[in-house]
Automatic annotation (TrEMBL):
The protein, known as: FMNH2-dependent dimethyl sulfone monooxygenase
InterPro entries: DMSO2_SphG (IPR024014), Luciferase-like_dom (IPR011251), Luciferase-like_sf (IPR036661), SsuD_RutA_monooxygenase (IPR050172)
Listed GO biological process terms: alkanesulfonate catabolic process
Swiss-Prot/TrEMBL keywords: Flavoprotein, FMN, Monooxygenase, Oxidoreductase
Taxon lineage: Bacteria, Bacillati, Actinomycetota, Actinomycetes, Propionibacteriales
The keyword tRNA-binding is assigned to this record: no
């Protein structure tokens, strides 16, 4: 355990809040690993409706609908994220759904209107994940310009400021380098709830640009899978920026969860996933994301220190270490929570079975450990 995790004084007020859980919606074919291993997971609507209902009843707070616009790296088919997110909320009662969206492919006022309507329909259960973009072909093949790394994040920050302004102001104004908004009154606006003044805004990243943007404008910062030390560094950097701007940002961490009754059985599954990796697709994905990240000035872009086995799971989910028995996984999650992690964004091999296993075997242990830790401190 890192020194930060073992320091009782480092526990913030957020430690008293129960860990939240989200799952990657498999609305893209190929599952969550770039491997030829059997996956009893399907990208279709009917499968995902059942999954959303299972997740809602097994402790999940959020579902993140990913977005791909063209076939790439083992993902031949893709359902669009905002429409799919709305469909899943209509099939559930409490689950909040986060739609991944790309500035540059969405005009922010149109996106804001779409989400506001969906939020009204669902009683305040919509959110967005702003993706600055790593896949050049998605832009250029649609005829849109591909900006360099820092400019993509500058555009995303303007996008977020614009969307928040139009959601919360009656005579919205915004003047930027990429977007402008003039005396605009969006009606109806999104639902205001006790837990949020507008749909929550998530983003993911690792670079210095991403950390700065997260601290300045987002509600949540998603980190790729990483060690406790790697996550602690990002939480510190984003929090430092947020503090300067008088803000509070919450943190989510990506993790691919393999829970089995024995550690050996879980490790065997991981070994088979990697052994059966689609090497051509993994290497193509690795080349694309590393090229995108290397365009950063300090080479801190996402995936820059990822190895082949890490890239078999798109967002470095193996590196978080949620692989083993229920007791091992629950203990690992509490270690991250002590560092300031508020949420785990989880992927699975066989979604229906693994989500039920999580709710039955792992989540109760997490809650027991949370209660015990709070009593201890």
């Amino acid at each position: 355990m890192s020194s930060a995790g073992s320091d009782r004084a480092s526990y913030g007020p957020s430690f008293h809040e129960p860990l939240k859980f989200a799952y990657w919606v498999p609305n893209v074919s190929g599952g969550l690993v770039v491997s030829k291993i059997e996956q009893r997971t399907d990208w279709g609507y009917d499968y995902n409706v059942k999954l959303a209902q299972l997740a809602e009843n097994n402790g999940f707070d959020y579902a993140l609908s990913q977005v791909r616009y063209i076939a790439s790296y083992g993902a031949a088919y893709q359902h669009e994220s905002t429409a799919f997110s709305l469909a899943l909320t209509l099939a559930t009662e409490r689950l909040k759904v986060i739609a991944a969206i790309h500035p540059g492919l969405w005009q922010p006022g149109v996106l804001a209107k779409w989400i506001a309507t969906a939020d009204q329909i669902t009683g305040g259960r919509m959110a967005i994940n702003v993706v600055s973009g790593w896949f050049k072909d998605e832009f250029t093949k649609l005829g849109e310009p591909w900006l360099e790394h820092g400019e993509r994040y500058r555009r995303s920050e303007e996008f977020i400021r614009y969307v928040r302004e139009i959601w919360t102001s009656d005579n919205a104004e915004f003047n930027g380098d990429f977007y402008n908004l003039h005396d605009f009154d969006l009606k109806p606006k999104p639902v205001i709830t006790d837990s949020r003044p507008h749909p929550e805004i998530f983003m993911g990243g690792n670079s210095t640009d991403a950390r700065g943007m997260g601290g300045r404008v987002t509600d949540w910062y998603f980190a790729n899978g990483n060690t406790p030390e790697g996550i602690h560094e990002q939480i510190r950097d984003v929090t430092d920026v947020a503090t300067v701007h008088g803000r509070i940002v919450k943190f989510g961490v990506n993790g691919f969860l393999i829970g089995r009754d024995t550690e050996a059985a879980a490790r065997d599954v991981l070994r088979e996933i990697v052994d059966k990796a689609d090497r051509e697709a993994v290497e193509g994905f690795g080349a694309a994301v590393k090229q995108a990240g290397q365009s950063t000035g300090d080479k801190k872009g996402m995936w820059q220190d990822s190895e082949f086995a890490d890239l078999v799971q798109y967002n470095d989910g193996f590196r978080t270490g949620l692989i083993g028995t229920p007791e091992q996984i629950a203990t690992r999650m509490i270690e991250y929570k002590k560092l300031g992690v508020n949420l785990f964004l989880l992927g699975f091999l066989h979604y229906h079975e693994d989500v039920e296993y999580f709710g039955r075997e792992i989540l109760p242990l997490v809650r027991e450990l949370e209660a015990a830790e709070l009593e201890r401190v």
